[in-house]
Write a structure and sequence with these properties.
Layout: H1 3-9, H2 23-35, E1 45-50, H3 53-59, E2 75-82, H4 89-106, E3 110-115, H5 127-135, E4 141-150
Antiparallel strand pairs: 1-2, 2-4, 3-4
Helix pairs in contact: 2-4
């Protein structure tokens, strides 16, 4: 499968079966994150694989909306960036999340990016602070997002090239 086919196949999957993700597939997804480029090769990102159901349930409540499905995920990967290492931790984390999202699709593992940075809980508290507390990590570690993972319950059709909005492309000549 070429890269464009993987991009067309990639969907934000929020419904998962109880089936375990095979270790080989999880390792491929993590390898994709580790291979993501970073500014000046500083590599500020760490990857925390969350398997504990109680922790996944707590994370599912860290945002006012858009994270409730995490409690049903098989696993999640929090991309935790050391802001003391790089000032481009947002960009570096985002690239790593996108690479893992694509690799999950290639491995037939459902995934969905949960935005944490700049989001709030129902009580107005920073989602990033809540997740940091849940995971027990220091304030200088920043969390752009978490990738929920699981075997897809059902099947979402792949996009086609007809689905893309070609009007978004402009040329300056």
């Amino acid at each position: 499968m070429d890269l464009l086919d993987v991009m067309l196949k990639r969907r934000s999957v929020r419904k998962y079966t109880d089936e375990e993700i095979p270790t080989e597939k999880l390792n491929r997804i993590l390898q994709a994150g580790l291979l993501a480029p970073t500014s000046r090769k500083l590599k500020p990102c760490n990857f925390l694989v969350i398997e504990n159901k109680e922790t996944l349930n707590k994370i599912s409540k860290s945002k006012a909306f858009g994270a409730s499905f995490v409690k049903n995920a098989n696993k999640a990967i929090a991309v935790i960036a050391n802001s003391k290492v790089s000032d481009t931790w947002i960009e570096d984390s985002s690239i790593a999340l996108a690479f893992m999202h694509l690799m999950a699709a290639e491995q037939d593992v459902g995934s969905c990016w949960i935005q944490i940075h700049l989001r709030k809980s129902k009580l107005g508290k920073s989602s990033e602070d809540i997740v940091r507390d849940i995971l027990g990590i220091d304030d200088y570690f920043r969390i752009v997002g978490i990738l929920a993972l699981g075997i897809e319950d059902g099947h979402m059709e792949a996009y086609t090239l007809d689905d893309i909005d070609k009007e978004k492309v402009h040329y300056l000549r």
